[in-house]
Design brief:
alpha+beta; 4-stranded antiparallel β-sheet; 1 helix; globular
Length: 60
């Protein structure tokens, strides 16, 4: 199994692991927990989802 650490603002927030020809995100920080278990096509897509979620959280 190959995993990749996903960072946001220089802080590790989760990992992605191969699952069903996609990448499954496993959150390790509470502020990205809503994305836990979701599947993405690339690490870049995970980063975009995190950025979108964090941008919305700051605006709220």
């Amino acid at each position: 199994m190959v995993k990749q650490v996903i960072e946001y603002a220089g802080i590790p927030v989760g990992i992605v692991i191969p699952d069903r020809d996609l990448l499954k995100f496993i959150a390790v920080k509470f502020h990205v927990h809503d994305l836990d278990g979701q599947h993405f096509s690339s690490p870049a897509e995970v980063h975009r989802a995190i950025h979108t979620m964090m941008s919305g959280a700051r605006a709220a």
